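Sync notes, pocket subgroup
Present: LS, DG
LS reminded everyone that the earlier model was apo-only. Rerun requested with FE2/S2 (inorganic) cluster included. Inputs:
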Amino acid sequence: MAQQERLVCASSELVDGGKGVRFSVERPPESGAVPAFVIRYRGKIYAYLNRCAHIGVELDWIEGEFFDDSGLYLICSTHGATYAPHSGLCIGGPCRGKSLQCLEIEERDGNIFLKD
Ligand code: FES
């Protein structure tokens, strides 16, 4: 079966180390929409489910604010777990060694697409 894709946002919406864009995905057998986000880091884009590896809450209290002040790490607003933006690996905090769940994403022709 051919892979499907869905437009998430325009490339211009993602500044390196800046605000991310929230979207949602279907993840059967889970019912309903599951929150996710995409960010840009060192020129590349990365997308993850918006679920902290600690207790599964969304990372951003302020919508789209996934990076810490340095712009080098993703940070969970709840208990401060920090994640490597390029791998989703938790490198500090209560879920150290666990990872965010990554999603397949592609940047093309000025837009960002989620691959199915
Ligand atoms: S819920 Fe994210 S660090 Fe605890």
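DG: The pocket of FE2/S2 (inorganic) cluster is lined by residues 52, 54-55, 57, 76, 78-81, 93-94 (CB under 6 Å).
LS: The two ends are 11 Å apart (CA to CA).
Action: DG to write up.
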